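Amino acids appear as letters; backbone shape is given numerically. Here is one record.
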Amino acid sequence: MEIFSTLFNEIINPIFAQPSFILGAVTFVGLAALRKPFVELIQGTVKTIIGVLLLQNGSGLMVAMFRPIIFSFTARFQIEGIIIDPYVTLSAVTGALDEKLGWVGFTMLIGFGINLLLVAFRKITHLHSLFLTGHVMFLQSALITWIVYYYFGYDLGGTVLLAGGLIGLYWSIGAQMNAKPAQIINKGAGFTVAHQQHLMNWVAWKIAPRIGDPKQSIEKIKFPAWLDEFRKVEVSVPLVMFIIFTPLLLLLGPSELQELSGMPGYLYVPIVAISFGAYMLIMNQGITMFVGELSTAFKGISQKLLPDALIGVDGMALAPYAPNAVMAGFICCALGEFSGVLVLVLMNSPVLIIPSFIPVFFDAAITAVFADTFGGWRALVVISFGVGLIHIFGNLWAAKNSGLVGGWMGNSDWATIWPLVMQGMKAISPIR
């Protein structure tokens, strides 16, 4: 036993403490299963490792910039600020897990193994969708590992088995929920959505026809060509963050901003917005580098075991099928979020939810494609605005029970499904 303990503590655990190496190893195995040449094996593995490191570093820079702002709000207004953003949350989870960060790799592998197993027995389970959005899988694995540990305090084995089981079921059922409508939207292209808004996509599919008419799709409306520029991260992110953060930062006052940043407020406000865009570009570059390699690797693994499985990919894969719906959903969700924040302010809420770009665009905009496809522009407006409200009030509920400081995932599944799961955990938790 002592030999195995030493092996785990000195070799296995340090490796799993580095998510970049874990995902690099998965990529290597998957590409090897596809019998890729040795050069491609090395290239794919290295690109995956570097991509994950870029993602982590971009996230770290972003949090380093926003954490002092959150603390300043807390100190001045006695308000606990929570940014609803996956990468801010990743940093919060990293700090909370500390030396237990290596457990995340086990959770992810167990979860993916369960997903594979359920799809392998698809004749019994009726689940045939394989969740292959690598970066989202890691983010979710990290958060659910923390949640399980926070509520039950189990050791490594108990934590990763429960966390892996929960996330594996979520991946399998969530991607399957979106399979039929996604296939309609993408005209049978062979993929479903594997992201973080499965429930709201499904709800939009079901209720959109009762709200509007799919014949009145927003895709039939002609918009000015200049609006296409706002689909670019380097344009849309700084603009949205400038609009969101300018009034919030100005509330701190000139002296507080000077003390916080070491520069005049009129310089600091635009720098915060532009820096957010820069860090997003760093993370996107990392995602671009490793998602393609990791998805190919997962396909290699699945093809050997599950040749007819439906592939689950990032929801933005649907964006080309309804570009107008994406932009309209983004705008309507933002209005819903602003309305929700205003309600919190008027109610003197001790916790303030601070919106972020990612849930608005990479969550609500995807759901908007479902809403418009099955219910036209009226359904899009109603559902997207509703998703914005859910982002505020659902995430407020979740974040208060998360044990994390400063951030929560933000996407709609983490404002609906997972708060219910956490409430159940809280009810049976021996330590909370």
